Amino acid sequence: MSFDAGMLAAVIAEINAGAAGGRIEKVYQPQNDEVVLLMRTRDGGRRLLLRCGANDPRICFTGVARDNPAAPPTLCMLLRKHLGGAFLVGVKQLGFERVASLEFDARDELGFPCKKYLIAEVMGKNSNLIFTDGDMKILAALRTVDFTTSRLRQVLPGMKYELPPPQADKRDPREESEDGFIAAVNGASGEMTAAKLINSTYLGVAPVVAREIVTRACGRADAILCDVEPKALYKAFSGVYSDLSAGNTLPVIAYDGSKPVEYSFLPLTQYGVENCRVCESLGEMLDIYFGERDRAALVSARAADLQRAVASAQSRLQRKLELQRAELADCDKGDECRRDADLIIANLYQLKKGDESVRLIDYSEMLPDGSFALRSLTLDPRLTPSANAQRLYKKYNKSCTARVELAKQIKLAERELEYIMSVKDALNRAETGAGLAQIRAELESVGILRARKGAAPAKSVKAPLGEYVTTNGYEVLCGKNNLQNEEITFRRAEKGDIWFHAKGVPGSHVLLRTGGAPLDDIPDADLNDALCIAAYNSDARDGNNVAVDYVDVRHVKKPPSARPGLVIYHTNYTAYITPDAEKVASMKK
After folding, report:
1. What is Dmax (Cα atoms) for the chain?
2. Residues 134, 211 within the same domain
3. Alpha-carbon 542 to chain mean position
4. How far apart are CA 290 and CA 263, in angstroms?
């Protein structure tokens, strides 16, 4: 679903209820197209996210802590200067457009009270964030728009702010009368879907909302106009926007299996109650829905070279293993060479120099009728029969040596591939820029990635560990990459702690802090919590009945010269559990 005008109206009501009068403590700009206002409100600290880019634009409260660049962008510095210590008076929607105006009580350079406005236009590819003074004169904008970009509206510092050009052919759904709505229905083709009519006639109605209105009117989301009673359709239509105006909203996410496919400010009966999840707030709903997209966008923006390096290393190792395994299979031909050489030695009296091929009786192979098989051999006519036999023995000895060495090399390549897959898994689960920086430092330290000029040294890269609290209050630590895995297992672990890892797949090292208590004294509920965390933070997070090994941490060892994060262990237990994302999220600190 797009972030439509109805969703914006619902979010604005939530912001006004939770943050009006709040004081701006900090301003961050984690990415080029988003600004985060850290506020102190009556209910404590809140983060207000203003994302005004082409991808997933929105405004909402967020519980997700975002990384910030070491050098703040110019817009961020300007907002800090003007809005630091300011109070949010309120947020209002300009018309029924996807435009929100945040009003602040601030102070100017001389300390006198003044007004400032931050206008968020969440309109897809035309999204923008515009900062103005009390007279609506533009002071700065996320994207400036001049005459070469648009002849209809310019957004430049010093100009007066103007709303985006209105959609003259569309109506405000909150002001529509029954007669006007029925006239619009009667004037349209009866073969048009009712949802399409609502979308094309009224402002700010997302397709999912239009389909929900039609579903409530006739039980089918794809019904055409000739199959819908106009008065019933109007009743459903007016009911949605009456509830919205009255603040009667319900944050809902619709799922297809485990994947969120839609979100809305009203119940989505078109997907069935069993496929919908009700959230506590609109901010939580948007965090859940966009969480994976935001994480993927972060990785795409900051880790493209890491992904290329890891993919290249994986492809190289897989090709290397294929060739080595093919060579190892060829070593089996060495036994044939020894067999042929033995046959030549046993029949030297029959052979002479110059023979190119012979057929000899092979007494090692008996046929079903009791006779012995005839074996055809190709010889080098330039060599004596004895020299031909010695040549075959050399091939046999060479294959025996190659078999031993290839087995060693294959084992080393498999370990290296296992390490690369663990790095790939860590990249796929990276959530912050600091975590990506730590993975970059790791790859540079092992020589897979060339160090960048002027980059921070590996020791200065810090990223928080995953921290959880189980049912009965036990602390659980979880590594997000191989460097953190080593820190948890070999530096943070204490006597009696229990170590967990998903069996046979790349994943995090997970440590249950027991405070020295023996394994038998740990409640099953807490062990299950740690098992769930280990299964979820692995490459098998989407599986069922995932095998997880767990063992006293003192039995976990690091082989000599092993890559970061690779360990061996023994005397372990194995349990099976199905990862539960909601349960893991509820345990996270």
Report:
1. 117
2. no
3. 13
4. 10
Residue 582, in any domain of the structure: yes
SS3 532: helix
CATH code of 104's domain: 2.30.310.10
The DSSP symbol for 193 reads B
In a shared domain, residues 15 and 56:
yes
Residues in the chain: 589
User: Which stretches does DSSP call E strand in 302-401?
Assistant: 357-366, 372-378
Rounded Cα distance, 484 and 477, in Å: 10
Query: How far apart are the C-alpha atoms of 204 and 183, rounded to whole Å?
Result: 20
453: pLDDT strictly greater than 70: no
Domain that holds residue 494: 464-587
Q: Which amino acid is present at 343?
A: L
Last residue of a domain, one of 247, 269, 299: 299
Q: Look at phi and psi of residue 498 and say left if phi exceeds 0, alpha if psi is from -120 to 50, else beta.
A: beta
Q: Give the count of domains, the chain.
A: 4
For residue 69, what pLDDT is reported? Answer: 76
Entry pTM: 0.71
98 neighbors 89 (Cβ within 8 angstroms): no
Q: How far is CA 514 from the centre of its chain?
A: 31
- Considering the domain architecture, whether residues 412 and 326 belong to the same structural domain is answered as yes
What pLDDT is stored for residue 458 in this prediction?
47
Count the helices and strands in the chain (H runs, E runs).
Answer: 14, 22
**Residue pLDDT, tens place only, 67-121:** 777 788 999 999 999 999 999 999 999 988 899 999 999 998 888 999 999 999 9
Per-residue pLDDT of 230-243, as tens digits, reads 999 999 999 999 99
**Residue 152 is assigned to a structural domain of this protein:** no
